[in-house]
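User: quick one, fold this
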Amino acid sequence: MKSIKKYLLIIAAALLTITLSACGTKVTAEEAINKTNEASKNLKNTEFVSSNISEIVVGDQTQKIENKVSGSLILDPFTMHATTEIKAQDKTQTLEMYIKDNVAYAKATGQDTWVKSSNNNITAQFENLKKLANSEQVMEFYKKIAKDFKIAEEKGNYVLTYSGNGDQFKELMVAIANSSGGQAVNANAFNNVDFKNVTIKFVVSKDFIPISNETIMEIATKNAAKPTTMKITQNTSYSKVNKVDSINIPEEAKNAKEIGSSEKEFVKYLNK
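Assistant:
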């Protein structure tokens, strides 16, 4: 009997040691966000899928717009492959693009052939897509509200969640808009917007590498002639982080016709 009691005491002590050790290494939300911010600075390449669904209600009319961009990025030298799909009003438009060695290659909806351009102004426009891999603005905002995040472990990852409202989310909206590869915006663009509800779900690995980031916003316009509400769901996921060795241009794109030296001509082609 004594030997059994001794054995049980040893097991209890071992379990207590493991439990205390686990408690000692528990990561707080603030630590996870700060470490992810630092780890993101070392992100050199990745595959990604970024989607945005906007449901807009103006008076008694509803419109839904879906935008999805997927592909691969190498930050230095900037190299990209991206396929964009936009769905609105029962129409779908697609655009496939490559950028490599300061040359842009594109094929849009309804086009049978590729075109290319060596215009630096065109390739520079798309360098904003680097922010899909590492948006400093988004991470800086998360650092400001880090104490209000909840953290849990799921499937071997850290899951950070947040819910709130108020004008502070102008900053987040600006950060999201500026990380989507479009034209830069500032907080003034959202002066007449009321942020009703915002939820965030940010998943990172135990090495603090971003895995996915989902933000859902419910907003309404202030002082509008017609009441307007909008629900925006923005989701970005990452894979093969720092494991994308190269992005190869298809032969048919390499052999594409050079389309003018002007930026307008290239944009005109994309909008056909």
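User: anything notable?
Assistant: The mean pLDDT is 81.
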